[in-house]
Amino acid sequence: MEKRKPMNILRMKKMKQEGIPLTVITAYDYPSAKLAEEAGVDAILVGDSLGNVVLGYDSTLPVTLEDMIYHSRAVARAVTTTFVVADMPFMTYHGSVDTALSNIGRLMREGGCKAVKMEGGAEIAPVVEACVKAGVPVMGHLGLTPQSVNQIGGYLVQGKTPEQAEKLLADAKALEKAGAFAVVLELVTDETAAKITEELSIPTIGIGAGNRCDGQVLVFHDALQYSSGERPKKFVKTYANVGDQIRSGLSQYVEEVKARQFPAEENTFHGERETVGSLYGSSKE
Ligand SMILES: Nc1nc(=O)c2c([nH]1)NC[C@@H]1CN(c3ccc(C(=O)N[C@@H](CCC(=O)O)C(=O)O)cc3)CN21
Ligand SMILES: CC(C)C(=O)C(=O)O
Ligand SMILES: [Mg+2]
């Protein structure tokens, strides 16, 4: 395989200037991260969406710092050139800046990621600034911010009215000013996302935010339909149907064991007669 240079935040900013789209996919474990790197993604996001797609919660709120560290470590072990960003979980960066920094430090040190992502705009600028001072690259996240779902009132498209669009742009600029190296725009109208993308010098990474962002991100399990027959969301394209493949492979396994077709002779070990004889103290003695 072609040798790739490690991805970093300077290259990502340069890609924006050159108009080269950034490709990001989430991953939460070693084999998926390996496959994502082999497929050539620029960055992996260890998203707190792991709460939904891996742990079976109905939101991202129950995900803990320990969960994020555990999954980030597995991803970090898998990659050599891919940039790894990990989500800061719900309520781990909203107390004092000191507490936030101590949590962020744990995710970087123990989770082995290269950057952290945080949801929010101007209100988190002080934490973003403190991170950047400490050498931690920060990715922002605006629009639909799932950790605030109870305040937003649902997983709704953002930036529809001129006032909402203005607020999003102001928040994006606040994040850029605070030193964020990129910003995710989630479930934002095409027009608003394009405007923000144009106004910022740092890359925008869209999910359900149209085709004019500087890059795109999707949840691994959505892109590959690695689930038990959920209805795909409007902003998702299904590139493979891993769920069907897993179900059919496993049902064949069940059938073959029931029919005593598996394990076959080629999957079976045999010892020397003497070994078996002495083990069971049989007639030979
Ligand atoms: N599997 C998965 N994929 C995600 O993209 C994702 C998660 N989980 N968990 C965390 C957040 C939550 N997200 C969500 C969840 C639901 C919708 C949703 O129901 N969207 C509707 C459109 C809503 C509207 O029209 O306003 C859709 O049909 O796409 C969108 C994003 C995005 N994130
Ligand atoms: C959807 C992306 C942007 C995310 O935050 C996640 O996967 O948790
Ligand atoms: Mg997230």
Automatic annotation (TrEMBL):
Pathway: Cofactor biosynthesis; (R)-pantothenate biosynthesis; (R)-pantoate from 3-methyl-2-oxobutanoate: step 1/2
Location of region: Disordered: 265-285
Alphabetic keyword roster: Cytoplasm, Magnesium, Metal-binding, Pantothenate biosynthesis, Transferase
Cofactor note: Binds 1 Mg(2+) ion per subunit.
Residues annotated as catalytic: E186
Residues reported to bind 3-methyl-2-oxobutanoate: D48, S49, D87, K117
GO molecular function terms noted in the UniProt entry: 3-methyl-2-oxobutanoate hydroxymethyltransferase activity; magnesium ion binding
InterPro entries linked: Pantoate_hydroxy_MeTrfase (IPR003700), Pyrv/PenolPyrv_kinase-like_dom (IPR015813), Pyrv_kinase-like_dom_sf (IPR040442)
Catalytic activity, as annotated: (6R)-5,10-methylene-5,6,7,8-tetrahydrofolate + 3-methyl-2-oxobutanoate + H2O = 2-dehydropantoate + (6S)-5,6,7,8-tetrahydrofolate
GO CC, alphabetical: cytoplasm
Cellular localization per UniProt: Cytoplasm
Cofactors (names): Mg(2+)
EC number from the UniProt entry: 2.1.2.11
Highest taxon of source: Bacteria
CDD domains named among the record's database cross-references: KPHMT-like (cd06557)
A single BP term in Gene Ontology: pantothenate biosynthetic process
Binding site for Mg(2+): D48, D87, E119
Complex and partners: Homodecamer; pentamer of dimers.
Function: Catalyzes the reversible reaction in which hydroxymethyl group from 5,10-methylenetetrahydrofolate is transferred onto alpha-ketoisovalerate to form ketopantoate.
NCBIfam families: panB (TIGR00222), PRK00311.1 (NF001452)
Homology family: Belongs to the PanB family.
Name of protein: 3-methyl-2-oxobutanoate hydroxymethyltransferase
Organism listed in the record: Paenibacillus aurantius
Gene: panB
